[in-house]
# Entry
Amino acid sequence: MSVTDMDITMLKGVGPAKALQLQRELGIFTLGDLLMHFPYRYLDRSHVTKVSELDADSSLVVLRGHISQPQAQIGRTPLLKATFTDPTGSIELVWFKGLRWIQDSIKVGYEYLVMGKPTVFGNQISIAHPDLELLSGTQGTDHTPLPFIPVYNSTEKLKNAGLSSKGMARLMENAFRMLEGHLSEILPASVVAQYQLPSRYEAMRMIHFPRNHQEIAIATQRMKFEELFLLHLDYQYAKYERQRKNNGLVFNTVGEHFNRFYAEKLPFELTGAQKRVVKEIRNDMRSGKQMNRLLQGDVGSGKTLVALLCMLIALDNGCQSCLMAPTEILATQHYNTLCRMTEGLGIRIELLTGSVKAAAKRKIKQRLQEGEVDLLIGTHALIEESVQFHNLGFVVIDEQHRFGVAQRSKLWTKNEIPPHILVMTATPIPRTLAMTLYGDLECSVIDELPPGRKPIRTTHATEAQRLAVYGFLRKQIALGRQVYVVYPLIQESEKMDLVDLMNGYDAMVSYFPLPQYQISIVHGKMPPDVKAYEMERFKKGEANIMVSTTVIEVGVDVPNATVMMVENAERFGLSQLHQLRGRVGRGADQSYCILMTKNNLSTTAKERIQTMVNSNDGFRIAEADLKLRGPGDIQGLQQSGILDLRLADIVDDEPLVRSSRESVQAILDVDPTLSNPEHYSLLLYLRNKRNGINWGKIS
Ligand code: ADP
Ligand code: MG
# Structure
């Protein structure tokens, strides 16, 4: 057992109370965990603030001056107060705890560094429980103080247990004393050498007790690299492991189903990109290895057709396929599309969603198990235990970003030999994200739209222009076109959003009155049959306008619709807006997207809307979204691990994301099983991680 595995209670200065708080508040159990609790900033001792400079906005500061003898205050809670003075003024220092000790230890007449966060109350500035450091006449301090003071996150509970930032720093000092200059490496020596990284021990020392700015920078880079390296390792090792198993269904045949569809049913020529991608997938499917491929393509690039062609190949090789969609609407839409496209070819397609009646469901499941269903379309209902296939050979997951990795792997176990998996994303994924999140997948991109598409014209409008916008909608409707009006629906304020939607609907009805105009309305709280009825009315062209929440975000295909008007557009994510915009521009006519916002937008909001106005390219928009909002706001990333990164930021640290990935790849290329002794620490890391131990914390 290495020092870092040592229980935190073995550390000098950690009694049961502190241990409990460290565990509860910070998840720190071992010495290694403690070391991974990095300062979130540093105070520079040489950067002293004057009292006269303090105001309500001051954050943590370092002051330098003298402290008066603390006085006990009479009141309900016992407390001590002292006056701190520097040449520019005075403030008050206050203590609620450890009063006796404070009273005895303050040396009047000596100079102190005082650190803390000032609070302003009327004219009075005070600092509660400041960290103090005696400067002049320093008997008792046995070392020259370092130029930086690490500042650690702390909570009320931690502070009460004596673990203020300073208390934490003291624990760190004790921890480093135990390490005796050594900490075992995780990264292989060759990597440390190649990237000229400081040793793990040095990096830790420099992060917690830096001597200068450069040390902070070097150490932070090293720990970020390590963090990203381990993230990549996790994903990529999984990929190599799967490839090694060499147990994929072999689809050698391109047979009758595929050929007849291609010859008789294909309504148009495939785009070059579609052909290339089908070829890539076909090669995977006959390689003898299980395919795990990510298919990216902008909205409307024709991913569904690619999926269908591959499902037909599976069928030609005697296997069933399934297609899993994130919403019922989208599943139904896929079902209808596929039924229509394959009509007359004798392919047995079924739809399985939450709203299929129990009896019908039972029947579908039974036929599925007996091999009498060729293609099963559905929602996450497909991963239920009770859904058993006869011989599942090919799985398509549409809009992956809403499914977790765990859900993905549930489908693998549906067959003795794991089926080939194709993950399709409707929202293009920024490169850095794709590189990490989907590091275990091969990647195909459809980078070409079917011919004849006119780029959608996007404009930004505010309330002042509302009537003009309505006038424009009337003109489009007069030309026989149809219009979407979409309201945001954000989970937390669902009720409010519904009110917004209904008000918006009422307003639309008054501006677009019956009988001249027909408006259908769709939202998530509607019974499915009413929803279906309203959608159908719009699809058939009986309604001119469809007012809805984002339920139409995916899965409505009405080529005659030419206007997408988005209300409160500033409340949507860019990728979501792009997705919505993709609902129009599907026919031959010029289409429009109108982004309505309030008048006063923040700079960021303006920038985001402008990105939409300027670009029709889903990949560029995804990159911009990531940069402007950060990964935390991107849908579906919650279980990804990317948000758990302590130091690295996949946007700001893109070069490190790349170099660490290359490094992992280089290692796995020559040693895919990590059996070289030099890579033992990596293997150990993965084992621990898979056993539910988070090594990132343990070291
Ligand atoms: P997405 O990639 O967003 O899922 P779809 O598969 O829904 O796109 O395709 C969008 C539309 O483009 C559909 O109406 C589809 O029939 C049509 N389409 C697909 N491929 C082609 C092609 N090669 N040529 C012309 N139209 C195509
Ligand atoms: Mg699609």
